[in-house]
Amino acid sequence: MISTSMIVGTVMRKIKSRTWKKQRYFRLQEDCMTIWYKSKKTGNTHSTCDDVEAVREGHQSEVLLSIADEFPPDRCFTLVFRGRRGNLDLVADSADEAQSWIKGMRKLIENLENMGDSEKWIGDWFKKADKNNDGRMNFQEVRVLLKMMNVEMNEHHAHRLFMMADKSQTGSLEDDEFVLFYKMLTQREDVLRVFQEYSGDGQKLSLSDLEEFLREEQLEDVDVVQQLAMELIERYEPSDTAKTLKAMSIDGFLIYLMSPVGSVFRPRQQNLYQDMNQPLCHYFISSSHNTYLMEDQLRGPSSVEGYIRALKRGCRCVEVDCWDGTNGEPIVYHGHTFTSKILFKDVVSTLGKYAFKVSEYPVILSMENHCSVEQQRVMAHHLNTILGDKLLKSTLDRKIPISFPSPEELKGKILLKGKKIGGLEDSLSGLMEPEDTLTGEVSDEDEAAEIDEDNLHMYQFHFLSLPQKSKQRLSKELSDCVVYCKSVHFSSFKHSRMHSKFYEISSFTESKARKLLREAGAEFVLHNARQLTRVYPSGLRTDSSNFNPQEMWNTGTQIVALNFQTAGLEMDLNDGLFSQNGGCGYVLKPEYMRRLDKRFDPEVPQNRDGYQPLSFCIQVISAQQLPKVNIKESSVVDPFVRVEIHGVPLDQAKQETRYIDNNGFNPVWYDTLRFTIHAPELALVRFVVEDYDKASRNDFVGQYTLPFSCIQQGYRHIHLLSRDGTSIHPASLFVHLRVTKLV
């Protein structure tokens, strides 16, 4: 139930910090989809409800916790937005007022999730175009609508459609007439062409017609085609008459092709489908770098929100940089910089609360420890008391292991990665020295200590001071929290092969990892079949930019740590790889990267056993309802599509279609792009739409990235995502895909 106060409007306090508390007037617009509020800085501000992901009640953000002594929790709530947009923290004048907004917003979110896609889309645009709010649209308003919907149409053609839809002959369209107008507007000649090719009578697909289409074009399993055809008619055919005839109309055919079953991503592989009983080192693990940072590496804010966002995206390895704080409480921030500071215990509490909301599989807490022995003991106390049984404190069977346990065995556990006194064998056999501390070097992944000499002057320019590698005392209490992930210095692959234990993990900067890849790619892969490796961005990436993770996955590196707060190609690839297997944050490496008795060199993939190159052919047919990227009202996109292959060096490639003038609504290409794939198990495919501009840089419109191994062949829709990785429904591409073996 939407409360009256939401529609009439409410004055609430918008909170940005303990000192920034401003009163703002908030109101739900008539469309019941948009929240309006007045801002002195930006003027009138609008947020659509489908941008809101969740409503948190009470003091559930750092900002609201900071004013907890001033405002009670029953008056406070937080609107959490999708993507990387900041939260909105609000304080109502009363508990009842807060509840009316909390319940109302949750109801709106639920309504939007339940609303049919086309109904939401049509209703949204109808209200936007109906300038005088009379529930009708004249032709002038329709012309405005077409421009808003990013389509430049011949006026005669537009008027003809308008007259056909105006059944009441009043010179304006009511809502049901507008739906008819919309359907005529969205008529899909490209889909009709495919439909008629397989239809016996040009009017419908009989059961046998549909079976033939599924078998010949979609390459569905012959044994299940008949059952699948029946299921598709039952699920997607809107006409009861067609259902009775066991047939599919053009409407049902389009609905099927636009559905998840008709999408480019094989539905079975979006669920958990891989063997989760292999040793931990046999998986790629979704990993975040300097997780506490929300922006850049030098001056930006630190926040527990960084951990919440990463964990909600399926991240399974988060990082914490710990330093001595005041009052004996360790703090987390990017040392030697101006980034803000947060309490270590707040990070641990957040981890305890959010670690397993999205995935049950283990979380690795990668710790860079700069604390004194006294504050290390406080850290160990917080880890033990706050996390309790979630913290892994011993091997699973309390025996000396010879290899990693599996993600399945470690479900619900948090593993600490850090320095450890002695080995796992010593602590299990009771051979530890009586002293409670040990002198050792700081964590190898301390970025300042790893900086190369060529870039020393740049590093000193950016950072407050340049730390030196130094001896550091380690507390036994903190050491005992480290079980399967002991941080060690890396000497060489030969040294590791002869002397290292499976539970010893080394961390490399991206440049050191590239050097190792160039010098000994096959050795790197073999090393990662037995031990964990972590690679993280260069300390010179002060803008929180990312390196391309694909080249590190090519070496079998499990923990490729990226700045999750920075959108772009690199995070698209990360999201693409981990979109499979239920989004659980673990992806099983190819079999040839897990074996100790075989060698795989990413530079020469053709030398491996079972090598079979594949031909990948994509016909880019059309796009639908692409969003406008230029704020000028007269602007319409000139779209083109680029298909990129990311994988081993031999597979790296990209090709583009032509650009289409002035049509973001339904551009048609029928352009064919061809690739050869040499290591399909490692390849990712990225579909990108851009707005062509001959005078300046092309504008990004949307993208979609997925593993090559998860592609469904045949006629498929690709539902595009924003730069932030969120849906930009109903924008999509329509393509035909075919994969064949090369002789």
UniProtKB/TrEMBL annotation:
Keyword terms: Calcium, Cytoplasm, Endoplasmic reticulum, Glycoprotein, Hydrolase, Lipid degradation, Lipid metabolism, Membrane, Metal-binding, Nucleus, Repeat, Transducer
Residue ranges constituting the PI-PLC Y-box domain according to the UniProt record: 478-594
Domain EF-hand: start-end pairs: 117-152, 153-188
Reactions catalysed: a 1,2-diacyl-sn-glycero-3-phospho-(1D-myo-inositol) + H2O = 1D-myo-inositol 1-phosphate + a 1,2-diacyl-sn-glycerol + H(+); a 1,2-diacyl-sn-glycero-3-phospho-(1D-myo-inositol-4,5-bisphosphate) + H2O = 1D-myo-inositol 1,4,5-trisphosphate + a 1,2-diacyl-sn-glycerol + H(+)
Membrane topology label: Peripheral membrane protein
Amino acids binding Ca(2+) 3: N290, E319, D321, E368
Name the record gives this protein: Phosphoinositide phospholipase C
Source organism: Esox lucius (Northern pike)
